[in-house]
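Below is how a single chain appears once it has passed through the pipeline. First comes the sequence as given, then the structure the pipeline wrote out for it. We keep one example in the README because the format questions we get most often are answered faster by looking than by reading.
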Amino acid sequence: MGDKLTLKNQLLEVRRQINGLPLLALRDGSTLRIDEQGAPVQLPSAWRATANPPILYQGNGACLGGQLEIWQGDDHRYSIHLPPPSASGPPEMLAYRQPAPKRQRGFSLLEAIVALVILAGACMALFAWINTSLTQLQRAELYIDAGPAIESAMQYLKTVDLARRPNGTFESGTISVDWQASALEADNTRSPEYGGSNFLLSLYAVTLTARSTTRSLPPLHTRIVNYRLKPGLPDPADGL
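Resulting structure:
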């Protein structure tokens, strides 16, 4: 039982040494050979490997094939046929083969065009978003500046005779407010039965449009009550 185990271990060691020949040839960059004189490896005592014709291992690790004979003393223990150009047979005796280098491939013209189209589309979308954001920011700033100007224009129009000036422009700093008025009810006054009045009241529908030098806001629609003295009555301000 012990002799069989020893024989098996020695045979495994022989196989390991022979299997390392492709790596040894690749490491040294030289050609190794197994011929009738044996193999260029250190085998267990009384073991040898022969080949006739010789088996060559090239500097790239490739085996050119041949008939490999394994001996223990004068006893023939193992025979392996390695057909060229690559070694075949039991996995433990296969010659080392360098992995084929991966083929490097670049972008084709079509792939480059598709990538450029996608990039151009993404850039256009980004620029459109930036332009929209800037426009909204400028409009928000105009709303902030135009609020006080519109309020001042509405107070001013209460003192203007809109029957004579149905349209015009109110200036407030960098903001201009254009107005357009149309009468809904004109020249109403208190009935004499209730004491009468020296003023005529009119209700106007007014459209206000605020604008700066570069941009304008949507029109604002409102109503304004306008009053004036009845014709023929003296202006109270004349006596001051």
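The two ends are 142 Å apart (CA to CA).

See the next section for the split statistics.
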